[in-house]
Amino acid sequence: MSSYDFYEEIVETPVCVILERYPLAVDYLANHRLGGIDSSKTLPAALLDVDPEMLEEFGLDNESIIDHFCTFLEAFRSDHDDRPDAISSITIIGGRNKSGEQENVELTVRPGEIISIVGPTGSGKSRLLEDIECMAQKDTPTLRQILINGTVPDEMRRFDTGGKLVAQLSQTMNFVMDLTVREFLEMHAKSRMVSDVEDVVERCFECANSLAGEKFSPETKVTQLSGGQSRALMIADTALMSASPVILIDEIENAGIDRKEAIRLLAGNEKIILMSTHDPLLALRADKRIVIKNGGIAKVLPTTENERRNLEKIEKVDNILLGLRNSLRKGEVIGDGVVEEFMDEWFWSFLR
Ligand SMILES: Nc1ncnc2c1ncn2[C@@H]1O[C@H](COP(=O)(O)OP(=O)(O)OP(=O)(O)O)[C@@H](O)[C@H]1O
């Protein structure tokens, strides 16, 4: 079957049936922010309700995404038994910032490295992650180019966004199918050829619950999970099941989950991690940080020894704030002396 042969099936069959036939298509839709489309319709019909600008970000439109999707299905079908190809590096070659000025950057990232992406709100942090995710070839608004192992990725590799090369944890998670958490994890485990499905599902579930503030059960519907719970589930799923050598994380700190533990889990196994963040604790945990300004990469700074030493102090401050946050969550009243006590503790933490 070629990608052309998938075409008829895709234009004639409701999305929910396609998702049952090809479970990895769930990832494809989520990666293209199409997780929320009406799955009772065929893909062309469902796309009529989608804002064309959203697809433009991926260099696609209502028609080309159907070919793109077919090629993805073909790529998955033809080599889904293979392990993901080894990745020795990702190179980001600068394009242009929002004012059209040249970005003078060529940054190569290797397995085991964690890179944070910092910059003001709206400066273009998520855009950089999207460029990496779609392996931009000067065909996105930034005109950046992404090389894999020092070379231009072939078309098949570019389309294969369904969990082989790049795993993306975005700020919002959309689930298209009304599955329970257990069914969702089982479906992923099977589609990723995991050997002991039951064991992995159990571990994933426990891990997700340890990250999430409010616990959920394996029988909870994924569509009923809160934003933080669904991110916790996807982090556990990515950490324990995904073989993707590259993990992209968009602002994990907003998810209300244990973010330090999440990064620790995701960083295992020599992966390349790029995460956009406003959180000093996460930014300084990285090996380098990319500073974005006005849509362009303004600087790439290695984390200094001094910054690493400060990380311990920042962590103490963070723990104090976490304590306050938890008190608020539990409905406790923050009394008059609390802020003074907090400042006191803060002061002493710097002397310790
Ligand atoms: N170099 C660029 N050229 C043109 N448009 C750009 C460029 N970089 C970013 N943009 C656009 O600017 C907008 C804001 O970017 P983005 O969402 O990536 O910001 P952000 O830093 O992630 O913001 P936040 O911190 O609020 O999540 C997006 O529409 C993005 O496509």
UniProtKB/TrEMBL annotation:
Gene Ontology molecular functions: ATP binding; ATP hydrolysis activity
Family to which this protein belongs: Belongs to the ABC transporter superfamily.
SUPFAM superfamilies assigned: P-loop containing nucleoside triphosphate hydrolases
InterPro entries membership: AAA+_ATPase (IPR003593), ABC_transporter-like_ATP-bd (IPR003439), ABC_transporter-like_CS (IPR017871), P-loop_NTPase (IPR027417)
Cell division is among the record's keywords: no
Top-rank taxon: Archaea
Keyword vocabulary terms for this entry: ATP-binding, Nucleotide-binding, Transport
Protein name as catalogued: ABC transporter related protein
